[in-house]
Amino acid sequence: MRNNKIAITTGDPLGIGEEVTYKALNILKPDKKDIIIIGKDLNLGYETIEVDCDDIGKYCYDCLKIASNLALSKEIKGIVTAPVSKEALNKSGYHFSGQTEVLESLLSESEEEKAEMVFISNDLKVMLLTRHIPLNKICLSKEMIINKVSRLNKFLKEKCKIQYPKIALCALNPHAGEHGILGSEEIDIIIPAVKELNNEGIFTYGPYSADGLFAKVGKKYLNNEKQEFDAIVAMYHDQGLCPVKALCANEAVNTTIGLKVVRTSPPYGTAYDIRGKNIANPDGMVCAIKVLLKLI
Known about the structure:
globular, about 40% helix, alpha/beta, 9 helices
């Protein structure tokens, strides 16, 4: 019998994670045998591994560690994570910039296994080449682009069942550098990486000026038209996430690829200010569970 079991962590207990998880499961009503809840017992009849710890950061880390151990032992096929606080993790001594990096540390067993962050909404897929780092610390290399786009291509072929994925790269600089006038990264790094990727049989296009590329992407998304490319690669966090959140803030699923299992998460944070008010919108968690079940 095929194992379709996934783990869902309920996130920061001071945030909205438990509420949106409870609401999403009530909406979707997945088969009881396919779900393990890690964190708090939501009294919904699903198998639950409860975590008891007063230290919020440690609690959140322990939930991710339990989920990772289940993945490594092949007891689950994927992980959905409710939001946690990066500050809480760091205050407890877990110096990571997010759950993506925590999971990479727990699930990666070789240099080839690296986590990549992709946002998915319908057929729109945007990968961030660099994630939670300051803009003045961004340093691109041809090897970085080749490695990360190769992982994306593998994900598109194996999990999304796209036989010949088409991947578009954003430029780093305005107007794609204007032939070196506004920056040389396109000429020196991105174009050589694109050429090498195509020589390896990975259909890669660009670099395109990010504003023009996302204008076309946005028009197709809003008109429910098929995207020209199977995935877009943004060079840095806000270059990709500003258009994604403008187009589909509640539906864009944060998806971690490149590890033993796929992980998805809703696109919002802990929302401490509305915790306990029963007004949190579960749409993002619904989408995160639906996307993961489709990918496994």
